[in-house]
TrEMBL record:
<dbReference type="InterPro" id="IPR002376">
    <property type="entry name" value="Formyl_transf_N"/>
</dbReference>
<keyword id="KW-0378">Hydrolase</keyword>
<dbReference type="InterPro" id="IPR041729">
    <property type="entry name" value="Formyl-FH4-Hydrolase_C"/>
</dbReference>
<dbReference type="GO" id="GO:0008864">
    <property type="term" value="F:formyltetrahydrofolate deformylase activity"/>
</dbReference>
<feature type="domain" description="ACT">
    <location>
        <begin position="20"/>
        <end position="100"/>
    </location>
</feature>
<keyword id="KW-0554">One-carbon metabolism</keyword>
<dbReference type="InterPro" id="IPR044074">
    <property type="entry name" value="PurU_ACT"/>
</dbReference>
<dbReference type="InterPro" id="IPR002912">
    <property type="entry name" value="ACT_dom"/>
</dbReference>
<dbReference type="InterPro" id="IPR036477">
    <property type="entry name" value="Formyl_transf_N_sf"/>
</dbReference>
<dbReference type="GO" id="GO:0006730">
    <property type="term" value="P:one-carbon metabolic process"/>
</dbReference>
<dbReference type="GO" id="GO:0006189">
    <property type="term" value="P:'de novo' IMP biosynthetic process"/>
</dbReference>
<protein>
    <submittedName>
        <fullName>(wild Malaysian banana) hypothetical protein</fullName>
    </submittedName>
</protein>
<dbReference type="InterPro" id="IPR045865">
    <property type="entry name" value="ACT-like_dom_sf"/>
</dbReference>
<dbReference type="InterPro" id="IPR004810">
    <property type="entry name" value="PurU"/>
</dbReference>
<dbReference type="Pfam" id="PF00551">
    <property type="entry name" value="Formyl_trans_N"/>
</dbReference>
Length: 302
């Protein structure tokens, strides 16, 4: 495989903003040159280009960061210029994002009783470290009005929807209504399996956190599975949700060493810390257009 990186020092624009562009097209000569020409012709300046060309495959993937003055290169013209570039190279994917000008991604967080991931995301969002708008939180677990989660949500005007589930009713129709206008969903230890019908109806990405190092230890109680297996590394895995349980394309994984001195309780504590870090990083990477689908069940993460 080949991986090429190009970096330049940005120039002093009058009112520069950052643009991000991701590209997937057949690999031919001159793609980076045309990309540079597209940006430079409008007075923009490339800050970095990260390119991946898989070995023995005629595919080109790239993620570019550039700065430009929107008074000289209006936002709608940026889109039109990259559409022309996309057509020139018969691109399968071409996405442009300007974080300072575009609306933040709108998400809904689904969570169950365990709330370490939910709480971490809420506080990271409050600190400005999670670049999304949270439309609401959905849970199959009821929380009392005076709990810290409910108080936090009320303070920030974020609705909390309690939808108790049963074997025969997963409340998916109601969930679909609540998430209709979102850009993607986050499962922060939501311990319900979403049906294939739900995934098809929603039709957008869903990011899940699994408290184990996939593809090992799928399903329930992965910390106990790992403890019983005597592993020397434990981890957490963030992945896209597919119809197969815990088998979607992996976005991020984090690990920590363990030893014979660890107990099951310390396994769980270490796992929870990894889950929080892993889920946060995967959401940030997704929002920064660092994650691209690759082959049948993989991702590229620039």
């Amino acid at each position: 495989m080949a991986r090429r990186a190009i970096s330049t020092i940005t120039g002093g624009a009058t009112r520069s903003v950052l643009g991000i562009h991701v590209f997937h097209c057949p690999d031919v000569v001159g793609i980076v040159a045309k990309l540079s020409e597209c940006i430079a012709s409008r007075g923009g300046n490339i800050r970095s280009v990260d390119v991946f060309v898989p070995e023995n495959r005629q595919d080109f993937y790239s993620r570019s960061e550039f700065v430009f003055d929107p008074t000289h290169w209006p936002r709608d013209v940026v889109d039109n210029d990259f559409i022309k570039l996309s057509k020139l190279f018969s691109a399968e994917k071409s996405i442009v994002r300007v974080p300072d000008l575009d609306p933040k991604y709108k998400i809904v967080i689904l969570a169950s009783k365990q709330e370490h991931c939910l709480v971490d995301l809420l506080y990271k969002w409050q600190e400005g470290r999670l670049p999304v708008d949270i439309s609401c939180v959905i849970s199959n677990h009821q929380r009392a009005p005076n709990t810290h989660v409910i108080r936090f949500l009320e303070r920030h005007g974020i609705p909390y929807h309690y939808l108790p589930t049963s074997v025969g009713n997963k409340r998916e129709a109601e969930i679909l209504e609540l998430v209709e206008d979102t850009d993607f969903l986050v499962l922060a230890r939501y311990m319900q399996i979403l049906s294939g019908r739900f995934l098809e109806s929603y039709g957008k990405d869903i990011i899940n956190i699994h408290h184990g190092l996939l593809p090992s230890f799928k399903g329930g109680s992965p910390s106990k599975q790992a403890f019983d297996a005597g592993v020397k590394l434990i981890g957490a895995t963030s992945h896209f949700v597919t119809q197969e349980l815990d088998a979607g394309p992996i976005i991020e994984q984090m690990v920590e060493r363990v030893s014979h001195r660890d107990t099951l309780q310390s396994f769980v504590q270490k796992s929870e810390n990894l889950e929080k870090q892993c889920l946060l990083q995967s959401i940030k990477s997704y929002c920064e257009l660092r994650v691209l689908p690759y082959q049948e069940n993989k991702t590229l993460v620039f």
